[in-house]
Protein backbone atom coordinates (compact mmCIF):
# COMPACT_ATOMS: atom_id res chain seq x y z
CA UNK A 1 0.00 0.00 0.00
CA UNK A 2 1.25 3.47 -0.91
CA UNK A 3 1.15 6.81 0.84
CA UNK A 4 -1.54 9.42 0.12
CA UNK A 5 -0.26 13.01 0.16
CA UNK A 6 -2.77 15.71 1.03
CA UNK A 7 -2.98 19.50 1.10
CA UNK A 8 -5.36 20.77 3.76
CA UNK A 9 -7.46 23.50 2.12
CA UNK A 10 -8.16 25.47 5.28
CA UNK A 11 -6.92 24.97 8.82
CA UNK A 12 -9.84 25.71 11.09
CA UNK A 13 -11.66 23.23 13.32
CA UNK A 14 -11.95 20.35 10.84
CA UNK A 15 -8.47 20.76 9.34
CA UNK A 16 -6.92 20.76 12.80
CA UNK A 17 -8.96 17.71 13.80
CA UNK A 18 -7.58 15.83 10.79
CA UNK A 19 -4.01 16.86 11.60
CA UNK A 20 -4.40 15.98 15.28
CA UNK A 21 -5.87 12.59 14.48
CA UNK A 22 -3.02 11.71 12.13
CA UNK A 23 -0.49 12.80 14.75
CA UNK A 24 -2.21 10.76 17.47
CA UNK A 25 -2.36 7.57 15.44
CA UNK A 26 1.09 7.89 13.86
CA UNK A 27 -0.48 6.80 10.57
CA UNK A 28 2.13 7.01 7.80
CA UNK A 29 -0.31 6.15 4.98
CA UNK A 30 -1.61 9.74 4.88
CA UNK A 31 0.85 12.65 4.85
CA UNK A 32 0.01 16.35 5.08
CA UNK A 33 2.42 18.06 2.67
CA UNK A 34 1.04 21.63 2.84
CA UNK A 35 -1.70 23.81 4.30
CA UNK A 36 -3.56 26.26 2.07
CA UNK A 37 -4.80 29.17 4.16
CA UNK A 38 -5.73 32.82 3.80
CA UNK A 39 -4.07 33.81 7.08
CA UNK A 40 -0.61 32.26 6.84
CA UNK A 41 0.60 33.38 10.27
CA UNK A 42 -2.47 32.03 12.05
CA UNK A 43 -2.19 28.69 10.21
CA UNK A 44 1.53 28.39 11.03
CA UNK A 45 0.89 29.01 14.73
CA UNK A 46 -1.94 26.44 14.82
CA UNK A 47 0.21 23.90 12.97
CA UNK A 48 3.13 24.44 15.35
CA UNK A 49 0.89 23.65 18.33
CA UNK A 50 0.19 20.29 16.69
CA UNK A 51 3.84 19.66 15.87
CA UNK A 52 3.12 19.99 12.15
CA UNK A 53 5.96 21.54 10.13
CA UNK A 54 4.78 21.94 6.52
CA UNK A 55 4.62 24.86 4.07
CA UNK A 56 1.64 27.22 4.40
CA UNK A 57 0.59 28.29 0.92
CA UNK A 58 -2.14 30.06 -1.02
CA UNK A 59 -4.90 27.89 -2.52
CA UNK A 60 -3.67 28.84 -6.00
CA UNK A 61 -0.42 27.00 -5.22
CA UNK A 62 -2.09 23.72 -4.24
CA UNK A 63 -1.95 22.26 -7.78
CA UNK A 64 1.86 22.54 -7.61
CA UNK A 65 1.84 19.71 -5.07
CA UNK A 66 1.25 16.13 -6.17
CA UNK A 67 -1.47 15.70 -3.59
CA UNK A 68 -5.18 15.41 -2.91
CA UNK A 69 -6.72 18.71 -1.81
CA UNK A 70 -8.88 18.20 1.28
CA UNK A 71 -11.20 21.21 1.45
CA UNK A 72 -11.72 22.31 5.07
CA UNK A 73 -12.75 25.88 4.32
CA UNK A 74 -15.69 28.06 5.27
CA UNK A 75 -18.81 28.38 3.17
CA UNK A 76 -17.56 31.74 1.91
CA UNK A 77 -14.08 30.44 1.10
CA UNK A 78 -15.13 27.20 -0.62
CA UNK A 79 -14.80 28.35 -4.22
CA UNK A 80 -11.47 30.11 -3.75
CA UNK A 81 -10.01 26.98 -2.17
CA UNK A 82 -11.18 24.31 -4.61
CA UNK A 83 -11.32 26.07 -7.98
CA UNK A 84 -7.56 26.22 -8.73
CA UNK A 85 -7.13 22.48 -8.13
CA UNK A 86 -10.25 21.57 -10.11
CA UNK A 87 -9.16 23.81 -12.98
CA UNK A 88 -5.78 22.05 -12.99
CA UNK A 89 -7.42 18.61 -13.21
CA UNK A 90 -6.59 17.59 -9.65
CA UNK A 91 -8.41 15.62 -6.97
CA UNK A 92 -10.53 17.43 -4.37
CA UNK A 93 -12.33 15.93 -1.38
CA UNK A 94 -14.95 18.43 -0.27
CA UNK A 95 -16.47 19.07 3.15
CA UNK A 96 -18.38 22.35 2.65
CA UNK A 97 -20.81 20.75 0.24
CA UNK A 98 -23.54 23.26 1.06
CA UNK A 99 -21.45 25.82 -0.82
CA UNK A 100 -21.40 23.55 -3.85
CA UNK A 101 -25.16 24.07 -4.14
CA UNK A 102 -24.42 27.74 -4.85
CA UNK A 103 -21.50 26.93 -7.18
CA UNK A 104 -22.84 24.11 -9.33
CA UNK A 105 -20.76 25.35 -12.27
CA UNK A 106 -17.79 23.78 -10.48
CA UNK A 107 -19.25 20.39 -11.41
CA UNK A 108 -19.09 21.39 -15.06
CA UNK A 109 -15.52 22.61 -14.55
CA UNK A 110 -14.63 19.28 -12.99
CA UNK A 111 -15.91 17.39 -16.03
CA UNK A 112 -14.21 19.75 -18.49
CA UNK A 113 -10.80 19.58 -16.80
CA UNK A 114 -10.87 15.86 -16.01
CA UNK A 115 -10.59 16.61 -12.29
CA UNK A 116 -12.13 14.58 -9.47
CA UNK A 117 -14.53 16.26 -7.05
CA UNK A 118 -15.25 13.78 -4.28
CA UNK A 119 -17.83 14.39 -1.59
CA UNK A 120 -17.09 12.58 1.64
CA UNK A 121 -20.44 11.17 2.71
CA UNK A 122 -19.53 9.65 6.05
CA UNK A 123 -21.77 12.04 7.97
CA UNK A 124 -24.99 10.64 6.47
CA UNK A 125 -26.51 7.17 6.80
CA UNK A 126 -27.52 5.08 3.82
CA UNK A 127 -25.65 6.70 0.91
CA UNK A 128 -24.40 3.39 -0.49
CA UNK A 129 -27.90 1.92 -0.64
CA UNK A 130 -29.25 5.20 -2.06
CA UNK A 131 -26.74 5.05 -4.92
CA UNK A 132 -27.75 1.45 -5.54
CA UNK A 133 -31.44 2.39 -5.54
CA UNK A 134 -30.75 5.07 -8.15
CA UNK A 135 -29.93 2.29 -10.61
CA UNK A 136 -33.69 1.59 -10.55
CA UNK A 137 -36.57 3.94 -9.72
CA UNK A 138 -36.55 6.11 -6.61
CA UNK A 139 -39.98 7.49 -5.75
CA UNK A 140 -38.99 9.71 -2.83
CA UNK A 141 -36.10 10.72 -0.59
CA UNK A 142 -36.72 12.59 2.66
CA UNK A 143 -34.23 13.89 5.22
CA UNK A 144 -35.41 14.95 8.67
CA UNK A 145 -32.73 16.73 10.69
CA UNK A 146 -32.84 17.68 14.36
CA UNK A 147 -30.32 20.47 15.03
CA UNK A 148 -29.38 22.07 18.34
CA UNK A 149 -31.02 25.52 18.58
CA UNK A 150 -27.70 27.18 19.45
CA UNK A 151 -26.40 26.18 16.03
CA UNK A 152 -29.37 27.84 14.31
CA UNK A 153 -29.75 30.94 16.47
CA UNK A 154 -27.69 33.26 14.26
CA UNK A 155 -29.16 32.15 10.94
CA UNK A 156 -31.01 34.97 9.10
CA UNK A 157 -33.85 32.55 8.24
CA UNK A 158 -34.70 32.24 11.94
CA UNK A 159 -34.89 36.00 12.46
CA UNK A 160 -36.57 36.79 9.15
CA UNK A 161 -39.37 34.33 9.89
CA UNK A 162 -39.79 35.26 13.57
CA UNK A 163 -39.10 31.74 14.81
CA UNK A 164 -38.95 31.38 18.60
CA UNK A 165 -36.24 28.86 19.51
CA UNK A 166 -36.98 29.03 23.25
CA UNK A 167 -39.26 25.97 23.39
CA UNK A 168 -36.60 23.91 21.57
CA UNK A 169 -34.78 23.44 24.87
CA UNK A 170 -37.42 20.90 25.87
CA UNK A 171 -39.20 19.85 22.65
CA UNK A 172 -38.49 19.80 18.89
CA UNK A 173 -39.57 22.98 17.10
CA UNK A 174 -40.42 22.84 13.35
CA UNK A 175 -38.13 25.22 11.45
CA UNK A 176 -38.30 24.39 7.76
CA UNK A 177 -39.83 22.06 5.18
CA UNK A 178 -38.84 22.20 1.53
CA UNK A 179 -36.36 20.94 -1.03
CA UNK A 180 -32.68 20.22 -0.48
CA UNK A 181 -31.84 23.16 -2.72
CA UNK A 182 -33.93 25.51 -0.56
CA UNK A 183 -32.47 24.08 2.67
CA UNK A 184 -28.94 24.66 1.38
CA UNK A 185 -29.82 28.24 0.37
CA UNK A 186 -31.41 29.15 3.71
CA UNK A 187 -28.93 27.24 5.92
CA UNK A 188 -25.72 27.09 3.87
CA UNK A 189 -23.43 26.44 6.82
CA UNK A 190 -25.50 23.58 8.22
CA UNK A 191 -26.90 21.64 5.31
CA UNK A 192 -23.95 20.06 3.59
CA UNK A 193 -25.94 16.88 4.23
CA UNK A 194 -28.89 18.09 2.13
CA UNK A 195 -26.72 18.82 -0.91
CA UNK A 196 -24.84 15.53 -0.52
CA UNK A 197 -28.13 13.64 -0.38
CA UNK A 198 -29.57 15.47 -3.39
CA UNK A 199 -26.50 14.83 -5.54
CA UNK A 200 -26.36 11.16 -4.54
CA UNK A 201 -30.05 10.50 -5.14
CA UNK A 202 -32.84 12.16 -7.13
CA UNK A 203 -31.59 15.73 -7.26
CA UNK A 204 -31.67 18.85 -5.13
CA UNK A 205 -35.21 19.85 -6.07
CA UNK A 206 -36.88 16.45 -5.59
CA UNK A 207 -35.20 15.66 -2.26
CA UNK A 208 -37.39 16.66 0.69
CA UNK A 209 -35.85 18.21 3.81
CA UNK A 210 -37.43 18.82 7.21
CA UNK A 211 -35.56 20.72 9.92
CA UNK A 212 -36.35 20.70 13.63
CA UNK A 213 -34.57 22.72 16.32
CA UNK A 214 -34.02 20.28 19.16
CA UNK A 215 -32.08 21.03 22.33
CA UNK A 216 -32.83 17.66 23.89
CA UNK A 217 -30.17 15.85 21.83
CA UNK A 218 -26.36 15.80 22.25
CA UNK A 219 -25.80 16.71 18.59
CA UNK A 220 -27.36 16.65 15.14
CA UNK A 221 -29.66 13.71 14.38
CA UNK A 222 -30.49 12.83 10.79
CA UNK A 223 -33.22 10.46 9.63
CA UNK A 224 -33.12 9.33 6.01
CA UNK A 225 -36.20 7.75 4.40
CA UNK A 226 -36.03 6.31 0.88
CA UNK A 227 -38.86 4.74 -1.13
CA UNK A 228 -37.87 2.96 -4.34
CA UNK A 229 -38.76 -0.03 -6.48
CA UNK A 230 -35.84 -1.98 -5.00
CA UNK A 231 -35.81 -0.96 -1.34
CA UNK A 232 -37.63 0.94 1.36
CA UNK A 233 -35.24 2.41 3.88
CA UNK A 234 -35.34 4.40 7.09
CA UNK A 235 -32.09 5.05 8.93
CA UNK A 236 -31.09 7.31 11.83
CA UNK A 237 -27.71 8.77 12.71
CA UNK A 238 -27.04 10.53 15.99
CA UNK A 239 -23.93 12.68 15.59
CA UNK A 240 -21.90 14.00 18.50
CA UNK A 241 -20.26 17.44 18.61
CA UNK A 242 -16.56 17.99 18.13
CA UNK A 243 -14.72 18.63 21.41
CA UNK A 244 -12.96 21.53 19.65
CA UNK A 245 -16.13 23.20 18.33
CA UNK A 246 -19.61 22.06 19.36
CA UNK A 247 -21.11 23.51 16.16
CA UNK A 248 -19.28 20.83 14.13
CA UNK A 249 -19.98 17.11 14.31
CA UNK A 250 -17.04 14.96 15.33
CA UNK A 251 -17.79 12.52 12.54
CA UNK A 252 -16.94 15.12 9.85
CA UNK A 253 -13.15 14.83 10.17
CA UNK A 254 -13.39 11.06 10.57
CA UNK A 255 -15.39 10.80 7.34
CA UNK A 256 -12.57 12.59 5.53
CA UNK A 257 -9.97 10.23 6.94
CA UNK A 258 -12.12 7.25 5.92
CA UNK A 259 -12.40 8.64 2.38
CA UNK A 260 -8.63 9.12 2.18
CA UNK A 261 -7.94 5.56 3.30
CA UNK A 262 -10.07 4.27 0.41
CA UNK A 263 -7.65 5.88 -2.05
CA UNK A 264 -4.96 3.49 -0.89
CA UNK A 265 -6.22 0.46 -2.82
CA UNK A 266 -6.62 -2.99 -1.30
CA UNK A 267 -9.91 -4.26 0.09
CA UNK A 268 -12.81 -1.88 -0.60
CA UNK A 269 -16.04 -2.18 1.39
CA UNK A 270 -18.99 -0.18 0.08
CA UNK A 271 -19.90 1.12 -3.37
Report the β-strand fraction as a percent range.
15-25%
**Count of discrete domains:** 2
- N to C succession of SSEs: EHEHEEHEHHEHEHHEHHEEEH
Distance N to C terminus: 20 Å
Annotated CATH architecture of the largest domain: 3-Layer(aba) Sandwich
**Global morphology:** globular
Specify the CATH homologous superfamily of the largest domain. NAD(P)-binding Rossmann-like Domain
Pfam family, one: NAD_binding_3
Domain Aspartate dehydrogenase: 171-256
GO molecular function: aspartate dehydrogenase [NAD(P)+] activity; NADP binding
GO biological process, one term: NAD+ biosynthetic process
Task: Summarize the SSE layout with pairings.
Elements: E1 4-9, H1 13-25, E2 30-36, H2 40-49, E3 56-57, E4 68-71, H3 78-87, E5 91-94, H4 97-100, H5 105-113, E6 116-119, H6 127-133, E7 138-147, H7 149-152, H8 156-160, E8 173-179, H9 180-186, H10 192-200, E9 208-213, E10 221-228, E11 232-238, H11 251-261
Helix pairs in contact: 1-11, 3-5, 9-10
Protein architecture, described:
- This protein is an alpha/beta fold.
- It is built from eleven helices and eleven strands.
- The protein has a six-stranded parallel beta sheet with strand order 3-2-1-4-5-6, with helices on both faces.
- Strand 2, helix 2 (40-49) and strand 3 form a beta-alpha-beta unit.
- It is globular and about 45 Å long.
- The relative contact order is 0.16.
- The mean pLDDT is 91.
What are the defining features of this structure?
L-aspartate dehydrogenase, 2 domains, 24% strand, 5-stranded mixed beta sheet, Rossmann fold, 11 strands, 271 residues, NAD(P)-bd_dom_sf, alpha/beta, Dihydrodipicolinate Reductase, domain 2
Amino acid sequence: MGMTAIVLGGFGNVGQQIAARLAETGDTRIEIVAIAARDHDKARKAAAKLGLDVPVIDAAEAPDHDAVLVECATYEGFRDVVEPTLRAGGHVIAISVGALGANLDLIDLTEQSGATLQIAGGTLPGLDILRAAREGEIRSVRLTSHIHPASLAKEPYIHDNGIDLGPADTTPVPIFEGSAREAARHFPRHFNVAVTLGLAGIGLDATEVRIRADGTLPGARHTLAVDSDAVQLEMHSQNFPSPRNNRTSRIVSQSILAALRRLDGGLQVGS
